[in-house]
Design a protein that fits this description.
Largest interface: A-B, 18 and 16 residues
Order of helices and strands of chain B: HEEH
Shape of chain A: elongated
Radius of gyration of chain A: 26 Å
Shape of chain B: elongated
Oligomer: heterodimer
Mean pLDDT of chain B: 95
Number of helices of chain A: 0
Number of strands of chain A: 17
Helix content of chain B: 40-55%
Distance between the termini of chain A: 35 Å
Structural class of chain B: mainly alpha
Low-confidence stretches of chain A: none
Strand content of chain B: 5-15%
Radius of gyration of chain B: 12 Å
Structural class of chain A: mainly beta
Order of helices and strands of chain A: EEEEEEEEEEEEEEEEE
């Protein structure tokens, strides 16, 4: 930073009497200009930089449009992005093919799966009354592990309930790191609820930050 | 809840995600699609199947 020589009793006009940048060590930002919608972050002890962010950059909701009975391991069909009743998503959103979801960019994502189901069988205490749901994850776009596993129960035909599972994923490779969803039950004994006008069985994806 | 749509019948035809809709916002028989390569019920079967479910529900809740 340079400072124009000043006369006695002359104040400093920062617009006309200075050039260059004032360093961080001297109370400046180290920058000559900023970028719209970016903010300042420390990059070390002596410099600052403008950075993107300051808010949610990706958020999306997908749901299944039709109910089905029994297992779907994984749930491959009838997915749609929420498109009714004040719907919306942030960023470019998730992409989906045959139930496999691809992240739009690298970063930390919170994925949450809501599974609503009703009973097909009756009789509390019978061995058929467990319902399992998973968020399944692949690191190689091929083999999947159960990243979450949540159990629920239903004890009566016509009764409804929901299970929820969630996990934060560190996505560094969008080509190979993907997720899908699964549900199984004892004796294939439930109806999974789905609807094209409201979220019943659905998944949400929120990018929390950069990886 | 009382069955009101042929989808309530279809979920009982066989298990799994075997069916869907070419237009999920217009779930009429003409838009019914089969995912699993299996047979597709006729429209009459869907109509009769829904009525059977409704009759059973009505009888159980009257």
């Amino acid at each position: 930073m340079a400072l124009t020589r000043l006369g006695l009793n002359q104040s400093i006009n920062l617009a006309s009497n200075t050039t260059g940048t004032l360093g961080v060590a001297n109370g400046g930002t180290g920058l000559t200009s900023g970028t719209t919608d970016q903010f300042l972050k420390f990059t070390g002890s002596t410099t600052l930089a403008s950075a993107t962010g300051g808010g949610i950059t990706e958020a999306d909701t997908w749901r299944i449009t039709s109910q089905f009975s029994g297992d779907a391991a994984p749930i491959t069909a009838n997915w749609e992005r929420d498109d009714t009743d004040g719907n919306g998503y942030i960023g470019s959103g998730m992409s989906q093919s045959s139930g496999v979801f691809t992240f739009p960019s690298t970063g930390f994502y919170r994925v949450t799966f809501y599974h609503q189901f009703s009973g097909m069988t009756t009789g509390p205490g019978t061995s058929s009354n467990y319902v399992q749901q998973e968020i399944q994850y692949t690191a190689n776009n091929s083999s999947y592990n159960d990243a979450t596993e949540v159990w629920g129960s239903i004890f009566q035909n016509g009764a409804y309930t929901m299970t929820v599972s969630s996990k934060i994923f560190d996505i560094t490779d969008t080509s190979n790191q993907k997720v899908r969803f699964s549900t199984t039950s004892a004796d294939n004994s439930i109806y999974t609820q789905g609807n094209t006008g409201k979220n019943m069985t659905y998944a949400t994806f929120v990018k929390l930050g950069e990886t | 809840m009382r069955p009101t749509h042929i989808e309530d019948y279809l979920v009982n035809v066989r298990k799994g995600q075997w069916f869907g809709w070419s237009d999920s916002k217009n779930k009429v028989y003409a838009n019914l699609i089969v995912h699993d390569g299996g047979s597709k019920p006729t429209e009459q079967q869907c109509t009769d199947g829904l009525k059977e479910l409704q009759d059973a529900w009505d009888a159980a809740n009257s």
